[in-house]
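EI: anyone free to look at a 296-residue chain?
SC: sure, send it
EI:
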Amino acid sequence: MRYANRPGRVNYEPNSLGGNAKEATAAQGGFVSFPEPMNGAKLRERSKTFGDHFTQATMFYNSMSDVEKQHIIQALQFELAKVTVKAVQQRMVNLLANVDTDMATSVAKDLGLTAAKGQVNANAGKAKKLSQLEFVPGTAKGRKIAILAADGSSGADITAMQGALKNAGATSEVIAPHLGTIQTAEGQPVTVNQRLADVASVLYDAVYVPSGAQAINTMKTSGDFIRFVQEAYKHYKAVAASGEGATLLNGVLGQQPASAPGVATGQNGAAVAQNFIAAISKHRAWDRPDTSAIPV
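SC: here you go
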């Protein structure tokens, strides 16, 4: 077994790049099987089933939802695009052609290549409990929600949403341009949990924007607020807004998102909470229209 990392690009063999990674011979101290006398020669060899390198991968891919398949394709495109040796990219694409033809074709096209014809096991089938979408919890319990706020946000909306989320077993954090407290539209202070510049939407499962004309005007001119909302929407997360907050969604998403899956809007926090929590319980709004146009 390997126990040391060699310098250079090559840490394995065989390879096409050359280098010093070579299997040690017996004379060099490499492993050899002890030839213990038996009724026949004792051999160290693998079962023929070890020669099938692709059926399990095909079964796994077949078991994924369409969304998960697309994520796998995008991940392969992302990683293989970083490979600087075209021949290595081509060999990887040709291997993928033995797992799934459509996947290999999509990856190859993105890399400017053509996948060789593979041999996909048509009898690989599917397996239960491999797709993450089979485990959607159907509850908001354990989810972490971002409440975007600023001076002038509705304290009543924030309080109502915090209470509803807590009752649903979720946690929430008020995110504002500064730590300490913000002054609500009612003139009362609300404690800020996180400074906007220090967090990102990827750390939260959903986003809520309370009403408050002064606060919404602040958010509309803040790149950090806009990016937070756009990124959450682009990642198919639940998004909610009340009162003037809905105008922020309309502006930063470049469309009328109120009717989009996973989006809840209403007059105030109490009116929005039920639909928002239902959207959170679905984990992601995978049926949301293509979000590629969202400028993040």
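EI: The mean pLDDT is 91.
SC: 👍
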